[in-house]
Amino acid sequence: MRDKYKPIAKAATRAMTQVADNIKAQGRANIVAAGFSKRWANAFRVNVYPKGQFSAEPAALVYHKVPYADVFETGAMIQGSPFLWLPLPDAPKGRGNRRISAGEYRKEIGHPLYSIKRPGKAPLLGAVIRATKARFQKGVSRSQLKRGRNPHGRGEERLVPLYIGVPKVEIGQKFHLRSITAANAKNLAVYYYRNFIDE
Question: For residue 31, which of 41, 48, 61, 67 is within the disulfide window of CB 3.0 to 4.6 Å?
């Protein structure tokens, strides 16, 4: 019975591994195509169990390491309390070429953000920096933001808007990981048959 079980277990595990590899590759490509970083894509995982051994009943666990990633699969309406602070083009970038959040700003840049109230318009958060007029026309750099008011620098101080506050944001579907998983799962029997014949 053990000799008969081995080819079945090998074929089943290899078939599941092939399906898992396809899901992972296609899923990560789908995430990058949606405009997310490679780091975000690599957080999409597909693990086959049991690990390191053959089984006639293998299983694959498909998941993303970022807890809220499913929002980009299903879409959602996110409410602020009272505002969500969205980065503007001058907001500094962090890892993965992603603009850092207003919450991360103080920790990474080291200076406070100031509220800019605009009657009848969305509020803003900005930072005070010093630069010449010519330098301001080129945009705001991360190094400028870190220098802040820079009392010994050239030019004048300006309050530069970095984030805009909105009460809510509707996020549409960005990923199609579930359909990718379902499409590849349909090929499981084909892969099993091929691997069983090759044994």
Answer: 41
Q: Which of 85, 75, 157 is nearest to 116 (CA)?
A: 85
pLDDT in tens, 129-161: 988 888 777 878 888 888 888 888 888 888 999
CB atoms within 10 A of CB 60: 19
DSSP label at residue 98: P
Q: What is the pTM of this model?
A: 0.69
Which residue stretches of the chain are H helix? 2-33, 38-42, 71-74, 102-109, 133-137, 142-147, 177-185, 188-198
What is d(CA 89, CA 86) in angstroms, rounded to the nearest whole number? 10
pLDDT (tens digit, 9 = 90+) per residue, 86-100? Answer: 999 889 888 767 889
